[in-house]
């Protein structure tokens, strides 16, 4: 990580999944990626909360999670 | 790397909570809240009409019993304005909620028109006087026909917009609250929680340890365990989110839940009848051993419908099956999903290592965030109608309140459930489900076996008196 980039971090929004482009924010993206989900569940239900899929790690993440491959949303 | 890219050092740790401002989710932000508002709005309007000397009966239309097709035609033509108004009302209520949640309203309305007409056909078929002779209970008929269509024909994408299984079932459950006295909820609630806790823990640990013994990843085993123990697909998603499970693991858990839930829709009512269970006891067993709310309501309502037409061969009030199911499943199991998610998140964050570098920690706010809010609507509906009923004697309640207030709400609830049952069948395309290996299948199936047996023993031999007190 360059010094300039690192210096920017405190001023910018925190480098967490909430601001990462790999976290697929839209709920409507969930059901097509999880076959059967719409049969007895819903991407729009409360139990999903703020969990979303990470396109990079292909796993569930929450807004405050972090990883070394964070990439800020454009 | 682009200019907008920011990289944290390897092994980055979770950021401070205060530094991350997660957008607040309001009371119109998910289907649960919308089901509360829609259900309560219907009940309040029904109450307002009732209080002014009118009734919602005109809108809450349903096919009458029939023996010849000409009777069917006459019935539909005679009530055409009612059916049109009913369609418009449901379309407005569901369409508003779904549009706010980001769905395309035009796609939903086109699809919902077809769903409504198909539901009317199912409703009409189950009103045939010989329907029970051929086991044509509305839930099973809707489910079977939906499954047949979706697995033989490729349905257009826009039609999928109207197949909102969870939304319909949640609205139906809120409306169901209006037919369940709060006193009954308070009386049977602790029993439901006790029974559900025993079975949920037994099922979870069976699946979890069976999965571990079979070499499954701990997170995957936990997702499977909660899916079997709590509320099926919703629980698999909640647990998957809590432990940051892999997508393929969540997919496999969903597949297992869907397959077993559909099997149980047919098996549990059949087994209940073969074992001579009363409606309330069967409802409790279904509530303990079904995996999804929608599937369980289908099974319980099918058993209640069978009892209604069995001429006394099945003991208990027909409605007791769905009431016992709802108490057991919604009050006993569903409301704890936030606790399960938080506990698993804490265990996963502190005890289970991972190799993909994702750093997470448990957040106590998950307990409320994942709480199934429609339960609030269910309890409020129950409290409201109980309060209204408290102003009447038992005789007047049966003579006035039931036909003019409660019965129309029950009819609208049955419509919502029928939309749901059809949607289950129409969204379940078996070929599109994720392939699963034998190890997750075996782990989950061992849990199913334990769940069914323990659920049966508790419902039939330990707590039968409580459940039969619902109307058995």
Percent of residues in beta strands of chain A: 5-15%
The structural domain count of chain B equals 1
Q: What sort of overall outline of chain A do the alpha carbons produce when their principal axes are compared? A: elongated
Biggest chain pair interface:
A-B, 51 and 83 residues
Distance between the termini of chain B: 68 Å
List segments of chain B where confidence is low: pLDDT < 50 over at least 5 consecutive residues.
1-11
What class, by secondary structure content of chain A? alpha+beta
pLDDT under 50 segments of chain A (min length 5)?
Answer: 1-10
Order of helices and strands of chain B: HHHHHHHHHHHHHHHHHHHH
In sequence order, what are the helices and strands of chain A, one letter per element? HHHEE
Number of domains of chain A: 1
Oligomer: heterodimer
Describe the 3D structure:
With 74 residues, chain A is an alpha+beta fold. In chain A, 19% of the residues lie in helices and 8% in strands. Chain A has helices at 3-8, 30-33, 37-40; strands at 52-54, 59-61. Mean pLDDT of chain A is 85; it is low at 1-10. Chain B has one domain (28-353, 363-468). Chain B starts with 30 loop residues before the first helix and ends with a helix. Residues 1-11 of chain B have low confidence and may be disordered. At the A-B interface, helix 3 and strand 2 of A face helix 1, helix 7, helix 10, helix 11 and helix 13 of B. Chain B: It comes from Dyella solisilvae.
């Amino acid at each position: 990580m360059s010094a300039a980039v690192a210096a920017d971090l405190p001023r910018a929004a925190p480098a967490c999944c909430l601001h990462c482009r790999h976290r697929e924010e839209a709920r409507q993206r969930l059901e097509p990626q999880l076959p059967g989900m719409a049969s007895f569940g819903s991407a729009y239900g409360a139990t999903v909360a703020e969990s979303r899929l990470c396109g990079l790690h292909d796993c569930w993440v929450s807004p405050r999670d972090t990883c070394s491959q964070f990439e800020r949303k454009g | 790397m682009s200019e907008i890219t920011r990289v944290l050092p390897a092994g980055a740790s979770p950021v401070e909570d205060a530094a991350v401002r997660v957008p607040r989710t309001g009371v119109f932000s998910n289907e649960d809240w919308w089901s509360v508002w829609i259900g309560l709005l219907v009940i309040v309007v029904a109450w307002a009409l009732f209080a002014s000397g009118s009734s919602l009966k005109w809108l809450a239309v349903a096919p009458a019993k029939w023996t010849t097709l000409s009777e069917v035609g006459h019935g539909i033509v005679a009530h055409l304005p009612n059916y049109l108004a009913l369609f418009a009302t449901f379309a407005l209520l569901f369409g508003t909620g779904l549009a706010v949640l980001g769905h395309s309203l035009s796609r939903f309305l086109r699809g919902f028109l077809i769903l409504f007409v198909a539901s009317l056909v199912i409703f009409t078929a189950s009103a045939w006087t010989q329907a029970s002779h051929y086991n044509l209970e509305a839930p099973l008929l809707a489910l079977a026909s939906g499954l047949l269509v979706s697995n033989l024909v490729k349905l257009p994408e826009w039609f999928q917009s109207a197949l909102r299984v969870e939304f319909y079932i949640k609205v139906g459950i809120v409306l169901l609250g209006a037919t369940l006295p709060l006193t009954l909820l308070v009386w049977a609630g602790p029993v439901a929680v006790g029974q559900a806790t025993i079975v949920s823990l037994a099922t979870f640990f069976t699946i979890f340890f069976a999965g571990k013994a079979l070499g499954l990843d701990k997170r995957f085993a936990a997702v499977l365990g909660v899916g079997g123990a709590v509320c099926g697909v919703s629980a698999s998603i909640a647990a998957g989110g809590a432990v940051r499970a892999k997508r393929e693991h969540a997919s496999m858990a969903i597949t297992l839940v869907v397959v077993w839930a559909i099997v149980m829709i047919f098996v549990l009512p059949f087994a209940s009848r073969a074992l001579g269970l009363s409606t309330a006891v069967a409802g409790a067993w279904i509530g303990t051993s079904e995996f999804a709310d929608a599937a369980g309501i289908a099974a319980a309502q099918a058993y209640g419908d069978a009892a209604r037409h069995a001429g006394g061969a099945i003991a208990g009030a027909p409605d007791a099956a769905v009431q016992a199911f709802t108490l057991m499943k919604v009050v006993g199991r569903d409301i704890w999903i936030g606790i399960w998610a938080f506990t698993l998140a804490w265990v996963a964050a502190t005890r289970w290592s991972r190799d993909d570098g994702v750093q997470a920690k448990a957040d106590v706010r998950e307990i409320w965030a994942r709480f199934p809010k429609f339960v609030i609507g269910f309890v409020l509906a129950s409290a409201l109608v109980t309060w209204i009923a408290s102003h009447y004697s038992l005789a007047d309640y049966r003579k006035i309140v039931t036909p003019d207030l409660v019965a129309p709400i029950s009819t609208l609830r049955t419509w919502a459930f029928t939309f749901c049952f059809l949607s289950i069948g129409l969204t379940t395309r078996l070929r599109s489900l994720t392939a699963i290996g034998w190890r997750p299948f075996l782990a989950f199936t061992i849990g199913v076996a334990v769940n069914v047996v323990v659920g049966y023993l508790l419902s039939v031999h330990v707590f039968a008196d409580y459940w039969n007190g619902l109307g058995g």
